[in-house]
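thought: fold this chain, then report.
action: predict
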Amino acid sequence: MSEYGNGFACAAGAEDFTATAHRAGKGGRTVTVKGTCQCRTPGFDLELVLASPPIVPVPEELHLELTEVPPKGTVAQVITPTDVEGEFEIGDEVERVLIRNRNITVLVKEG
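observation:
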């Protein structure tokens, strides 16, 4: 798990995420990425979003970013496990997911 000192309010590491690929009915492939982050307070909304493509294309990787939306108002300062999940269309060549803004790499497993 990464430290909070990186400017993020929610900490996570590669061990906190899974990536499971599935075949759709028409032959397409999707990956479901799930994770649990440790947030400084309850009430954070987390989302996995597509990152801009890398300068040098890496066909084996899906590039994502983990975004945080802090709670509004006053909340208790209690470390809180917070789940995040996203589903993305991928090609057959994708073998791993890179959450770029956290430097987390997760291998894709077939489900």
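thought: worth noting. The chain is about 0% helix and 50% strand.
final: tokens above.
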